[in-house]
Amino acid sequence: SARMFGTETVRVRPVNCYGIHEEYTPYRGFIPKFIYLSLHNTPYTVYKGHKRIIDYVEDTCETFANITENFIPGEVYNVGSGRGVRLSEIVGIYERLASQRIQIIQEPQRLRQGDASKIVGDISKFHKKSRWKPRIPLKKTLLDVLDYWRNEIGSGRISKKDKE
Question: How far is residue 134 from each of residues 11, 32, 88, 151, measured CA to CA in Å?
Fold first, then answer.
């Protein structure tokens, strides 16, 4: 659009975004996946050393809402919290919030062609330009997502059978 029509365009590359109402599927989003599996007492595989930057959907939306005021047309920005989190750390926080042990299968790092063990992108340009920081604490966001899934499963709207 910028090249063809001269529009003021900014390209944004968001990181792993998660939140309530995210549908479980075995093929996306590790947070809803491990919460869903844990609530069904199903083991979850965690690969040692895997790390991701994650953002709660409300923080991501706030970032997108402010793009027009804070960014330079033509630039590309990787956006996210900047905090790389090991998957095992997320599991530990979740276990404390849920007061429940998750059946974890820890496996050595295993990468297939195209896989990445660490997805933490350089977001320094975004942070320097925006001076924005995520405002919703990780523990609160995980608790919100946990409560959502408990309500969905408890209400019978979602069962393990529905997703297999």
Answer: 20, 20, 21, 26
